[in-house]
Amino acid sequence: MSTDRRKYQYAEIREPSGDTAVDGGSQEKICDFLRKNWCLSVVVVLLVVVSAIAGELASRRAPITPEDIDINTKISYRMCQVYRHNNARVKVLQTSLGEPSVHWGEVPCVYYGRRMTTLFDGDQGHGEFDDPAEYVAPSAQINVDFDAGAVFPNRKKIYGFGGAFTEATALNYNTLPPEGKTTFMRLLFGKDGLGYSLGRVHMNSCDFSVKSYSFDETEDDFELDDFDDDVTHDVDSGMIELMVEADNYIRSSWATTSDIYALRLLVSPWSPPAWMKAPTPSDPEGSVHAEGMTGSAQPTCLRDGVGPDSKYAKAWALYFSKFLDAYRTQGLHVYGITVQNEPEFPAPWEACSYDPYTQGDFIANHLGPMLRQNHPLVKLFMFDHNKDHAPHWANYLLNSSNPASEYIDGTAIHWYAGGMDRLLDGAVGSPNMHRLVSNLDKMNVNPNHIIFGSEACHCPTTGYAGGDLKVAWARAERYAHTVLADLAAGSNGWIEWNLLLDSIGGPNHLGNLCDAPLLAVPYRAKGAKGVNTTANFEKAGHPFGRVVGDGRTRDELNALGFSALFLDEGIIVQPMYHYMGHISRHVRPGSVAVPAIVDSVKNAKFARTFRRQGRPVAGGGINDLARVGVEVTLWPCEGSTRQEWKFNEDGQFEVFGHDWLGVPTTSCLGKVPDPNFEGLLLTNCDSDAGQFVIVPGPSDHTSVHIQLVNGGGMSVDSCMILKPLENNGGAYGPRGGAQVTIGSCNSVEANWAFDENSGEVRSKFFALKGGEVCMTTGWPFLQVGAFSTPLAPENKAVVVLNEAGESANFVLKDSGKIVLSTSIPAHSIQTILYN
């Protein structure tokens, strides 16, 4: 949102309004003029008739067909043309790196199609719509199918989007001037903001607190007689007030008593009080219990385990119940609670480890019965960690033979990749999301089972602090990609991490500084005097150097897209915010995902979205996913560098690119399927990479086999094969992200085509389901998500994301009918709305 948002006038034929009617005096003057100039009047009438006849003849001319167009014609940017059916208005909203100060701006469109003039009574205007004249010039065909309805008709609908009310968020909120606080609420929860309806809060402290704390520090207080029923810390820090205000703001903004427009709050514990925890590896030898709340013993942090007789596990389950009671007393009705934040990670901050077996025992023996008795309406979510192990946890915990399964209502998922490569966050695990949803169906899990993306953020530090707009923009693109991919796989909602941080991404008492869509900079508010650039709660210093954004003027920041209007109120609004708005503002609670895929060019075997026929190299700009750890998948061919492979002299499939900071990257296709993701990843171009030979395929000589020769203990009959997605690919369908793995050379999945000139590795496995697919690093540059949105003003929303460094032309078809043809600029996102 921006004060200089462009409001374009649609170039459409409009009926005159009552305000434009000619008054009586004007009519008399016109009649007098016509009586005195009757010859001229006759000429005018004849011209009108001739023009109408000519228009009718022109409308009957042979339509322009794809075959009439030179496929080599390069159209760098196409005007938005709407092919209107039933006179429905189409709105195209855009945010683009090319115009970073314009957010959610409306793109001008013209309406195309015959509109016949009515000359006689009873003559009805009508018209059919021809294909766009530029249809087969390098162009994508985006196919959505609203007639098909929800992809997951038996599952819960989308609940919405939101973020976390951490202590860091509350402290930063309280540094804002009064007008800044009002703007914060409007930006995140209002109708003209993101319209957030989900929230998350930590039970006890987390790393985004200023220090560790709990609500009962009395050792061996098994009945929790000393539990702070007033949750004084959360009141004094401002967390409670902030959540109550957000809930009230949501309810008043959307003017409904329905719970669908209230704050649905998810609670997650990071650690029990230290006296409940077993000593950690870093504690002194002989310690009776953990010295503090940071770190964790394994396989569980609790002192005497999670068996039915564990006093500490029972006390910890009671702690959950008393916390929920305390929050209800404060006016907050918690929607759901997770068993543990990131149970697989004995983190250097507050932590409590579980594996699936110990978490299952804790649920079955203690937490499940406690919640069932005292808080039966509160939903219990399992896991709350990364996608790599989500299917494994679900297969164990949700199996009907597991006594924990009857208490579990949902699964919480984080977007992180694990390890220390933060540029992989949000980039891996999509096939596992499909696998998770598929397994729910196979195990006959209640279709009301909810899946939330419960945490996501970029680290380290903030885009504003780093000062590189391209990096901040890349972070926004990764947000949008992951949200669209998760919803396509069957997720019911998405919750980012901190709603508000300071300029460097804190406070965090372990120095784990991260980014957020909104940043508090009260010292830059209009009229601010004597306000320090660093709040008294921020102790991290500047571990990543000076804050580059602070060195820029108000006008410079505004030109870069950090709106001066909000800067004047002490708030930095980053690109992530605007990209999220293209989804959350329109995909309202109650929406459902419908089939959508970006397909290859129509009737053009060798032309691609980013590479016209005859172009010697792939387009789309430099590949920023050519890095170790990225999954290799299959998508409709787009002719981009994300689908360009070099078969090098060592028999390796190699890709090139650079990361967000411009550092060159080279990686190769691996040889061993990842045990967690079940497909091949990119790896270093050394002994970890697969070495292949390309040999003739079946007897028809139309395909080849790509045989692995350094598989070690693998069978000599080992070839690269296609692995279809489970869940039938969700909203993307089977061609939207199938995996690449190693398998039998005798399978039909082992048939490929490799073009050394284009670098494409293609498969026709899905030929009967839409066409061939190309081997891709991660995902394509051009992506789409489509949603039926019954509670929004327009009930159809199509989100188009272009991560490429080049613009892309596309034609949008809904259930086979053309909606519009247009272009999306480089590094841009569009939301197309219509009824």
UniProtKB/TrEMBL annotation:
<dbReference type="InterPro" id="IPR035992">
    <property type="entry name" value="Ricin_B-like_lectins"/>
</dbReference>
<dbReference type="InterPro" id="IPR017853">
    <property type="entry name" value="GH"/>
</dbReference>
<dbReference type="GO" id="GO:0016020">
    <property type="term" value="C:membrane"/>
</dbReference>
<keyword id="KW-0812">Transmembrane</keyword>
<dbReference type="GO" id="GO:0006680">
    <property type="term" value="P:glucosylceramide catabolic process"/>
</dbReference>
<feature type="domain" description="Glycosyl hydrolase family 30 TIM-barrel">
    <location>
        <begin position="158"/>
        <end position="525"/>
    </location>
</feature>
<protein>
    <recommendedName>
        <fullName>Glycosyl hydrolase family 30 TIM-barrel domain-containing protein</fullName>
    </recommendedName>
</protein>
<feature type="transmembrane region" description="Helical">
    <location>
        <begin position="38"/>
        <end position="58"/>
    </location>
</feature>
<feature type="domain" description="Glycosyl hydrolase family 30 beta sandwich">
    <location>
        <begin position="794"/>
        <end position="832"/>
    </location>
</feature>
<dbReference type="Pfam" id="PF17189">
    <property type="entry name" value="Glyco_hydro_30C"/>
</dbReference>
<keyword id="KW-1133">Transmembrane helix</keyword>
<dbReference type="InterPro" id="IPR033452">
    <property type="entry name" value="GH30_C"/>
</dbReference>
<keyword id="KW-0472">Membrane</keyword>
<keyword id="KW-0732">Signal</keyword>
<comment type="similarity">
    <text>Belongs to the glycosyl hydrolase 30 family.</text>
</comment>
<keyword id="KW-0378">Hydrolase</keyword>
<dbReference type="InterPro" id="IPR001139">
    <property type="entry name" value="Glyco_hydro_30"/>
</dbReference>
<dbReference type="InterPro" id="IPR013780">
    <property type="entry name" value="Glyco_hydro_b"/>
</dbReference>
<dbReference type="GO" id="GO:0004348">
    <property type="term" value="F:glucosylceramidase activity"/>
</dbReference>
<feature type="region of interest" description="Disordered">
    <location>
        <begin position="279"/>
        <end position="301"/>
    </location>
</feature>
<dbReference type="InterPro" id="IPR033453">
    <property type="entry name" value="Glyco_hydro_30_TIM-barrel"/>
</dbReference>
<dbReference type="Pfam" id="PF02055">
    <property type="entry name" value="Glyco_hydro_30"/>
</dbReference>
